[in-house]
Amino acid sequence: MTKTNGGFEPVFCTVVPPHILDKLAQHEDPALADPARKTLERDAFERTHRRLTTVIGAPAVAAPPGAAEGKPHRTIYDARHHTDLPGKKVRAEGSDPGKDATVNRAYAGLGATFELYLKAYERYSIDGNGLPLDATVHYDNDYNNAFWNGEQMVFGDGDGEIFLDFTIPIDVIGHELTHGVTQYTANLTYFGQPGALNESLSDVFGSLIKQYTLGQTAAEADWLIGAGLLAPRVTGKALRSMKEPGTAYDDDVLGKDPQPATMDDFVRTGRDNGGVHINSGIPNHAFYLAATALGGHAWEKAGQIWYDVLTGGELKKDALFADFAKLTVAAARARFSDGEELQAVLKAWEQVGVRTA
Predict the structure, then answer these.
(1) pTM of the full structure
(2) Among this protein's residues, is 277 annotated catalytic?
(3) Which residue positions in the chain have pLDDT lower than 70?
């Protein structure tokens, strides 16, 4: 298996699913179709570049000399609407906020992600070993996505018609960086059910990062991924809903949110790597059910169980939903014995139709 950046075979992961961009690309209005087509082309290029880097290998990246132990090491770059990465360095760790709100949001989002993993799970950065957190903003023109490319974060500004600035939702930042955590731990294959688990874990911890930052309980959280990202003309509230998969948007341009909440509506498709952004609604909903049943801060119990599975070494890269569910049951029992935590996890998977026996 090819090692890259100290991890395994990183994949190119975007927050906006291909099925949304495909729909936009077919629109009769060039103002909507052209940015979507450009984004799809750019995503295809970056995906190929990611594969090449995986094949030839990339140098391991470590925290720089003098970096403070237990502190993030963030660097924000500005692509200035070009596509060469990383771009011009515009903010370093410890420097004061500037006039560019996008730069400041990216910096804060990287910090919030670092803090959740360190404070809640004692994980020192994405790789557990102080990996510097780099991000590039203002990528390309009208770029309708954000992605983790195996080495850094990249944010588009959106087209202003359908999507706004991708640094606005802090859970989008946390979602993409969690793909890095998965890369360095379970390394779930990015196809079918393992790929949907990969996406779901990013949604789970993206949501937890938002909740941690806002000091919210499970009952107070909105359980939306990408709230604030959709432009005013869009009939919708977010990219995905963990509380009610399939209800995040219902728009004349984007269509209806296709996510299922249970295995009864599991979608079989060859698109989107076997529906990784669609079927992730099922494990997403299971986490929501477990977290809200337990109450309090979701990162403390349900989040801890999911983190234990992600990082415990027993989650195989080709794991199916049932494999993951069984491991969460084992993790709940190992950490919390036969208490309410175990019962909440068992019931959550039963409600979404995933077997744990």
Answers:
(1) 0.92
(2) yes
(3) 1-11, 49-68
